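Hi all, long-time lurker, first post. I run a small reading group and we've been trying to get comfortable going from sequence to structure in the token notation. Rather than ask abstract questions, I figured I'd post a concrete chain and ask someone more experienced to write out its structure so we can walk through it together at our next meeting. Sequence below, copied exactly:
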Amino acid sequence: MKIKSIMSIIFLFALISFTAPIFNAHAGTYSYYLGRFEDYSDGTYIRSTEAIAYPVFGYNASQGFLRQLNCNVTKVYYNRYNKDYYLNYDLPDDGSAWIIDGVVSFYQKYIFNGGPELGYSESSHQFSIKVSDSKTTSGTFTGYSPKTATDAANAAASNASTAAINATNAYNAANDAKNAANSANANAASAADRTWDTVTSKSAATLAREARDKAASADTKLDAIQTSITNIQNNLGADVTPPVVKIRTVSGALATSGGSISAVLDISDNAGSDFTYSLDGTSYTPVPADGKVFLPLGSPGPNVVTVWVKDGAGNAGRSSITIRRL
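-- Answer (accepted) --
Happy to help. Here is the structure in token form:
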């Protein structure tokens, strides 16, 4: 029996075949202070600071998975010339430790209008603020994650190992019974020359019949045990490899002025060619035969778009691409 091989397959399944976790309702919105920037207009000077992109991700350190967070940026009046800027992000009520990481990109614009005497001037620039935060939410985690899948795989591996050992022991016991039956059959043949066997106090015909029955019973048990072992091995040999996904735009451009861009999904898999895809990790639709899909873009600036792809066995792979909306 290849017990180590069976356990390796189970652990591999736990690591690469989990789907997106199912979350409880959000525990609330958390805020991260980004800084104080100029934002005012007095007729002559106009100074504005606006957040244009905020690809921020949360890593669930307790359950071992990464997801892009739902975010927005707000500004709070500080004085006549400045405002305080905050990144607001949602976390689920899952009782987990979260590590928050990402960037917020800003666009600043300066306008001076001094009228006919002093003239008019305008300038602008972009800059980014690094986001690094951590939070532990209340509540209890529900659903599936690498951790829950690993725990389940460990339990399954232990059960499979025990079943394999028990099957091997039963196989050996049945084989011993078959050998004993063959030996009894030989003894019966030797006793056939005698009308009565004084050792067993049985006739030669009785000894022969008992030997044949024991041999037939041992063969039946061996066949059933071997079938059970084969079924265990077959059930553990399912497809557990996720597809590999690459994203490229049809035109090759990584910027557009539109609200979406046409892209091609290049997908490879170890088995099968029927795939579905999702832009939110939950709602899946079949991948077109030519692999072409439309990727939606949000606000102007960099947009990180992630595409999830599942194969026929339900294994999920994903890839991301950054497109700038002009």
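A couple of things your group might point at:
The two ends are 62 Å apart (CA to CA).
The first strand starts at residue 26 and ends at 38.
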